Amino acid sequence: MTEIWDRETFLQRLRDVGKDRYHHLHPFHIAMNAGRLSQNQIRGWIANRFYYQQNIPIKDAAILSNCPRPEVRRIWIHRILDHDGQAQGEGGIEAWLRLAEAAGLSRDDVWSHRYLLPGVRFAVDAYVNFCRTQPWPIAIAASLTELFAPDLMRERLAAFEKHYTWIVPDGLQYFRARLMQARRDSNEGLELTLTYCNTRELQEKAVEALAFKCDLLWAMLDAIQLAYGGATQPSKEETK
Ligand SMILES: O=C(O)c1cc(C(=O)O)c2c(n1)C(=O)C(=O)c1cc(C(=O)O)[nH]c1-2
């Protein structure tokens, strides 16, 4: 039988996945953070990413529905209300809608999926489907891209404040709130993964789940870039 990885080795295997596979390296994000995207390209990204935001609580509900352990569900359940809010006008989905409005889109532009690209739809649906059908510790491991998210979000927030000043600053609240939430969520997700992926087979599946998740985030940006462009050559300044 193949030996189980110790905690440190398992953690390192998970972290290694993000190094060259997380979407912080995607040319569309690099162009975004360098301030090279047009208003139309930023709007296309916001409208498409809404579909991801919309489906996050649905996949979290799928994880809960597959998990027989109250002590795990108790930890996981806040994620649904983080996105849906405790009341009308609160939560992450609402904050994303405000970002859309701050960037000149209407709520209906976003809710109607008018700009939703087939590739983005398929990638997001694949994530929900994965979380519905995989064992819950593996679906939890797929959320660990959030380990890598805070650095990217911090960079994105600074880039938006500096380069995309046409976006009303209040609209950036989603990213501010998410910085804290992503850190807490990834700590919780990591602890659950390290605890419940407790055979070598489950550990390897967890690493594969994280790679799958990186690929689907990457595929979303491929689709967005194909439709909107945005992979212009980096300036001399950036390649220095
Ligand atoms: O903007 C980003 O780059 C980014 C990345 C990720 C991620 O890495 O999965 C999430 C988010 N944002 C995010 O806002 C979010 O709510 C979220 C939930 C999850 C998840 O898998 O449960 N990932 C992410």
TrEMBL record:
InterPro entries per UniProt: Haem_Oase-like_multi-hlx, PqqC, PqqC-like, Thiaminase-2/PQQC
Where in this chain does the record put each Thiaminase-2/PQQC domain? 12-222
State the top-level EC class. Answer: oxidoreductase
Pathway per its UniProt entry is: Cofactor biosynthesis; pyrroloquinoline quinone biosynthesis; Cofactor biosynthesis; thiamine diphosphate biosynthesis
A single GO molecular function term of this UniProt record:
pyrroloquinoline-quinone synthase activity
Q: What is this enzyme's catalytic activity, as reactions?
A: 6-(2-amino-2-carboxyethyl)-7,8-dioxo-1,2,3,4,7,8-hexahydroquinoline-2,4-dicarboxylate + 3 O2 = pyrroloquinoline quinone + 2 H2O2 + 2 H2O + H(+)
Q: Which UniProt keywords apply?
A: Oxidoreductase, PQQ biosynthesis
Tell me its EC number(s), please: 1.3.3.11
Q: Which BP terms does GO give this entry?
A: pyrroloquinoline quinone biosynthetic process
Q: What does this protein do?
A: Ring cyclization and eight-electron oxidation of 3a-(2-amino-2-carboxyethyl)-4,5-dioxo-4,5,6,7,8,9-hexahydroquinoline-7,9-dicarboxylic-acid to PQQ.
**HAMAP family with a match to the protein in the record:** PQQ_syn_PqqC (MF_00654)
Give the record's family classification.
Belongs to the PqqC family.
Q: What is this protein called?
A: Pyrroloquinoline-quinone synthase
Q: Which organism is it from?
A: Chthonomonas calidirosea (strain DSM 23976 / ICMP 18418 / T49)
Lineage start: Bacteria, Bacillati, Armatimonadota, Chthonomonadia, Chthonomonadales
